[in-house]
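Exam revision sheet. Question 4 asks you to relate a sequence to its structure. Input first:
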Amino acid sequence: MGRYSNRGEMASDLQELLDMTPEPGPVIERREKQFHHRLHAEEVAQLITEYKSGVKVKELAIRYQISRDTVIKHAKRDGGVRHRYPALLPEEITEAAQLYKSG
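Answer key, structure tokens:
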């Protein structure tokens, strides 16, 4: 009986527990929902044509609202297209070589 009649200790124990709880952290904002854009066969054909003509992968990804990886995968799936390495254009490679030689 003595335990239930002395509630002062219980109140202080509860207050101790409340003091131990951490302060709420910053609110984490959710990212925008990701939308998947599936290309039709005509769009894929146009994408491949533009890729072959030298349009940059980043540009195509923005234009067709797909990731850069997806652009490259479509190009590889086509078979006749290989991934463009390095990322520099031929004239940029020449300029880079000249700059490298000049120090």
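Marking note for examiners. Residues 52 and 64 are 16 Å apart (CA to CA).
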